[in-house]
Write a structure and sequence with these properties.
alpha/beta; Spermidine Synthase, Chain: A, domain 2; globular
Amino acid sequence: MESWFSELQTERLRISFKLRETLYRTRTQFQDLAVVDTYEFGRMLVLDEMVMFSEFDEFAYHEMIVHVPMLLHPNPTRVLVVGGGDGGSVREILRHPSVERVVLCEIDEEVVKVAREYFPRLSAGLDDPKVEVMCRDAIEYMKDPGEIFDVAIIDSTDPVGPSLGLFTLSFYRDVHRCLGLDGIVTAQSESLYTRPDHIRGMCLKYKELFDHVAVYCSNIPTYPTGYWSFTMGSKTMDPRTDWSEERAKQLEPDLRYYNRDLHRAAFALPTFFREWIDV
């Protein structure tokens, strides 16, 4: 890489980061992988020329993709993470004392290895005895995981390459089947401004399977437009009203982004988008 790294966020929009250095780069079985050190945002993991996270703002992503669904479930004990080989989602899941088991299903073993070496604070939870890390294709795994989960976190890359199949109705059906009676799934679902059609498509698929569907957002500067969405499906609980404020209060002192006020506000969507997705 040169002294600047640029991510093409749409065909007509790119964001650039001035680099201190490229720490590591390889071509894995599935994707191009790089770890870069930037002046503005610290270290970044880059997959196929797309920023996965930075040290500067990863907490805004991981805290929101995890705590919003975890606080909705009345007693989450068994949690699945699809993707997320960096360990950030696992770190946040382990903050919940009810959790007994976490399964991380990451297709690319190299992501896990790189996270352990270059992002130790992010990946430390991967060594927790409650956590099982398996490096395999989640699409195949979800056809018969052999257990039931309370919450599923789809912490995938963008819907291209090896992650494309994680955004299909057939995959969501498999996830739904492997969730318990109060089961909940949350997936990262791109920017409201650059991918509204994609988010609407996810909502329509979720509506075929779940009684409650909702979109909520977080501000993540290194992601396209900085305004990022998550799409949630819940079998029984209403994401906007049925979450536990008491458990949230207990978590807040250890968190950097999430709080109860932000939880409520995250479901407040811009009018143009709310009308478009109709959830």
